[in-house]
Amino acid sequence: MRVRRLSLRPRLGSALLLLFFALLAAMPYLLPRLFPEMETNPLLLRRWLDILVMANLLAVLAMSWDLLGGYTGQISFGHSFFFGLGAFTAAILSLTVDWSPWTVIGVGALAAAVGGVLIAAPALRLHGPYLSLMTLVAALAFDRFIRWLKPADRFDLGIPGAEGAILCSLKCFLTFDAVAKYYYALALLVGSFLVLWAIARSRIGLALEAIRDDEEAAQAAGINTAKFKTLAFSVSGFFAGLSGAFYVYHIGSASPSYVLNLERSVEAIATAVLGGMGTIVGPIFGAYFFKLFEELFRPLEALRYGVLFALALAVLLLVQGGLLSRALQRLRGRDLVAVPPSAPPPSPPPSEGLPQGTETQTGTEAVRR
Amino acid sequence: MTRRGPKGSEPLLRVEGLSKAFGGLQAVSDLSFHVREGEILGLIGPNGAGKTTAFHLITGMHKPDRGRIVFRGREITGWPPYRVVQAGIARTFQIPRPFPHKTIAQNVEIALLPNALFTLRGRRRDRWARVAACCTRAGLCQTVGHPPAAHTPNGRCECWHTYPGALPQAGLRKLEIAKALANDPHLLLLDEPFAGLTHREVEELSELVRELRAEGRTVVIVDHNMRGLMKLVERVVVIHFGHKLAEGTPEEVAENPAVQEAYLAGTLDRSSSSSSSSSTLKEGPSR
Ligand SMILES: Nc1ncnc2c1ncn2[C@@H]1O[C@H](COP(=O)(O)OP(=O)(O)OP(=O)(O)O)[C@@H](O)[C@H]1O
Ligand SMILES: [Mg+2]
After folding, report:
1. Model's pTM, two decimal places?
2. Residue B285's pLDDT is what?
3. Which helix (H) or strand (E) holds B221?
4. In the predicted model, what is the mean pLDDT of residues A202-223?
5. Cα B280 from Cα B272, distance rounded (Å)
6. Contacts of A204 in chain B (CB under 8 A)
7. What is the largest CA-CA distance in chain A?
8. Helix (H) and strand (E) counts in chain B
9. What CA–CA distance (Å, rounded) separates A290 from A264?
């Protein structure tokens, strides 16, 4: 006889998520019912659907960051590099080759995955702040490189006043139908989520978490850390690039001042932090929160971002697991008494209870922490 | 196999002229010793003698400045740690290093993960059976407690729901050993496994080490002194300031004047509470 009293509870999260996706799928029908002015003004509906598309793109970008930062502990400050690499690859391809939009977007994502492998090469030798700094500098360098390259000059399609930007709106568009585009973006979100979630929950995800928690101990456990870190960089790059490439097909242009702006990196981090690092699902909610806040508090102008980033800071300081995962844990009644996941990853092992040779224990190994 | 070991056969592990400096500090200098197949070897030395560093060098976590490491006739110097593990050497850490956000069972599972991205070997179900076996073997299930279900064939102990933070010091050491066993090592390197354990726990662990040896594994145990090792090990290598000071049976080594002097000097340097050299060597600092 197996009584599993709690068996329903772990599914609560999945049920909520399904409900949320269903809600998103119903949006094009719900919005006009909820806000009658959208019924009379189709442009308003279109605007809101576009905002939701942007939320989905931010969610994909933040999830990709989360696999690398939240799961593997490789904190990237330069995700705009991958986003921009996917965007520019897609923009240039859309003008030069005659492939279907989906092929171009896929190739853009693949280019960013290759970019991930390239970044991983130096990243394998760096740790902590040095690694973050390296990703930041790589993103900046790529931004300056594109501005210098002025790829648009080749096609005579630059945007006056926007250095290095490519206007490809005649070639890089998916559809005029705002509702269809919304569903494409939703499919992108759900598909990306499913893949990243599957990776995170698999044995690969377990290896990544081991690397995050204690890289040396992971090595001692026989894990090929270089290989798994490279994998994390390339998968993360792939989805960030996917988001960037889709963005180009959404907006119709690629401009360094947007797609390579370091703000993209910061937004991705803030989104992941708000939703909960190391959860994959959290960034989805973080992204919707971010984009809706941005839109609803438009009158606050730049202050909105001040508030959003301050919120992210507060979450970092107070609830490291993120708002969502904390709330879900409460709901499930599963408190991880022993070591809550909110503990900072590099937390030293409990050092109490060393009745003998405490000076020994702190001597050598503690030095290296 | 060209070179012949002291017993007429190639030793399982041969360390030759190993050196490692950290900045100006020579942690290990020109260290040579060997480990015979199927023995339990004690590696002892005072604080800062370089024992842990020697383990780091053997397992590939540090690259040696000079020297060679030969395991089962193959030179493994400079191999990345995961290849050393694959070759059959597993180690525990002096300060237990659990993965704090993963359950005890997952901690052990991590040591069982295949490195291949796509593989049909190492299915999750088989892995979990191995996890259960390793947890039981290392005595973890007894530590965290068996629920009644654990007595059925598919039963699992509390390791599947407990996080390492809930473990006492002895439990964390058992977890280290369970993780090392999960790698199915030919050679097991234990870094001060007895530190902080009660007399009974020391006995239990000694028994486990003997069992492991009986099933054909070789064990190297690092300790400060020979307390607890006397009855367990057949042979002892003493390290001091990074190189080998003496080797032999525990009795021989305890009588060795150079060893006694090293321990006396070390004791005075650290002005520790222990009284005499031989008591430090044999019994260790009183707790
Ligand atoms: N990563 C490191 N960086 C700098 N110095 C180190 C490092 N690791 C060890 N050392 C130094 O090397 C020397 C040998 O250290 P090691 O940890 O090997 O000694 P040990 O024999 O294990 O000592 P203990 O009994 O205290 O564990 C010590 O003086 C230590 O401070
Ligand atoms: Mg040591």
Report:
1. 0.85
2. 44
3. strand B218-223
4. 94
5. 10
6. 117
7. 78
8. 10, 10
9. 13
How many Cβ atoms from other residues are within 10 Å of residue B84's Cβ?
24
In the block, which residue shows the tokens 């909520």?
A16
Q: Residue A186 belongs to what H/E stretch?
A: helix A178-201
The span from the CA of B98 to the CA of A127, in Å, is 20
Structure token pair of residue B127:
């892995």
Q: Which amino acid is at A219?
A: Q
Interface of B with A in 165-224 (CB under 8 A): 165-166, 168-169, 172, 179, 182-183, 192, 195-196, 224
List the single residue in A213, A216, A364 with the smallest CB-CB distance to B100.
A213
Asked if A210 contacts A217 with a C-beta cutoff of 8 angstroms, the reply is yes
Sheet with B40-44, edge to edge strand ranges: B89-91, B187-191, B218-223, B40-44, B235-240, B243-248
| Binding-face residues of A in 338-357 toward B, CB within 8 A | 338-339, 341, 343, 345, 347, 349-357
User: What are the structural domains, with CATH classification, of chain A?
Assistant: 2-338 (1.10.3470)
Residue B109 tokens read as 């599972």
Torsion on CA atoms A8, A9, A13, A17, rounded to nearest 10: 30
Interface predicted TM-score (ipTM) of this complex, two decimals: 0.85
- B122-129: average pLDDT: 81
**Ligand 2 centre distance from Cα of residue B95 (Å):** 9
Query: What pLDDT does residue A199 have?
Result: 95
For a mutational test of ligand 1's pocket, the pick from B15, B25, B94, B270, i.e. the residue with the most ligand atoms closer than 8 A to its C-beta, is B25
Handedness of CA B51, B55, B58, B63 (dihedral sign): negative
* Contact between B42 and B231 (Cβ < 8 Å): no
What token pair was written down for A97? 């080759």
Distances from the Cα of A72 to the Cαs of A200, A206, A235, A277, B106, in angstroms? Answer: 10, 9, 12, 11, 16
Q: What is the pLDDT of residues A171-205, one digit of tens each?
A: 888 888 889 999 999 999 999 999 999 999 999 99
Please report how many Cα atoms fall inside a 13 Å half-sphere around the Cα of residue A165, on the Cβ side: 18
Give the tokens for residue A84: 């921009």
Q: Are A297 and A248 in contact (CB under 8 A)?
A: no
Rounded alpha-carbon distances, angstroms, from residue A247 to A58, A173, A174: 10, 10, 11
Tokens of B164: 């390492």
For residues B104 and B167, is the Cβ–Cβ distance under 8 A?
Answer: yes
Q: What is the mean pLDDT of chain B?
A: 83
pLDDT tens, B232-260? 898 999 999 988 888 988 888 888 888 88
Q: Are A126 and A134 in contact (CB under 8 A)?
A: yes
Query: What pLDDT, on the 0 to 100 scale, is given for residue B57?
Result: 95
Tokens 């809600």 correspond to what residue? A23
**Alpha carbon separation from A222 to A71, A218, B43 (Å, rounded):** 19, 7, 23
Average pLDDT over residues A326-355: 43
Which residues lie closer than 8 Å to A330 by C-beta, 6 or more apart?
none
Which ranges constitute the DSSP H helices of B26-103?
A: 51-58, 81-87
Report the Cα A241 to chain-centroid distance in Å: 10
All residues of chain B having their beta carbon less than 8 Å from the beta carbon of residue A329 are none
pLDDT at position A263, please?
Answer: 92
